[in-house]
Amino acid sequence: MKKILIIALLCGIFAAPAFAEKNYKKQSYDLFIVGRILDWDGIVDSLKAEPARTLDQDIELLTYYYGLVGHLMDIDKKKARAWLDEAMPVITPLLEKYPDDARLVGLMANFKGYAIALSPIKAATLGRSMLQLARRAPQLAPENPEANIWGANILFYMPNALGGNTKQAKIYYQKALELYENNEALRANNWLYLQLIVTLGLVEEKAGNYEGALEYYQKVMRLFPDYPRAREVLYPRVVKELEKK
Fold first, then answer.
1. Half-sphere exposure in the Cβ direction for 172 (13 Å, CA)
2. Domains in the chain with CATH codes
């Protein structure tokens, strides 16, 4: 019996570092900060290889697909489509199994949005369900920041004439920010929190409120000094607009 206990303890000691190395959230955050989002492919492969993934792990995997497709949309549409094609067989059965999970509902809305952006003709078949899912996600889980983000994305980027709602999108984004900032655990090593602040800056830019956008980009530089995009692209762009006034 004593020998069995010793072996078990040794297994635990040697297994601990391997478990620690699987902090995908920290890895994804570190790569996002330095602009190496394409290197998430390794994280995706590792997560896909996890035996008996939990629902939370599946949703984490889907957020990496979401980030990769979004990053590639304006860089390489062929690769963006390939990642989207890989994501759909993951999310489709999950949503069928958990139809009221706000995170899955919102992510599916965004994947359908990507599909339309990559092939606008699909708007005829996907547009209505995409908007329904986008509106439903924050209603299902109003206290979940990601559900608010997923819903807001579609309403913000979809033209108002086609069902978008910029005003409501901003409300959802601000709600998500409030939820993150009231819970440090939700913010820790979370690339979505950083992206959200940037997005709110873009919302203000789109509205011509450059002073408001500047505040968000200054916040990014203060909280994430190692994130070069705010310092080198976003902040200077808004300053240039303000100098025109």
1. 29
2. 24-243 (1.25.40.10)
Query: Cα(82)–Cα(78) distance, rounded to whole angstroms?
Result: 6
Calpha distance 49→129 (Å, rounded)? 31
pTM above 0.70, yes or no: yes
Helix axes 102-118, 145-157, angle to 10 degrees: 30
Neighbours of 98 (CB within 10 A): 15
Distance CA 138, CA 143 (A): 8
- pLDDT, one tens digit per residue, over 40-80 is 999 999 999 999 899 999 999 999 999 999 999 989 999 99
Under DSSP, is residue 224 helix (H, G, I), strand (E, B) or coil? Answer: coil
Name residues whose C-beta falls within 8 Å of residue 208's C-beta, 6 or more positions apart in sequence: none
What Å distances lie between residue 243 and 148, 201, 212, 231, 240, CA to CA? Answer: 34, 18, 15, 17, 5
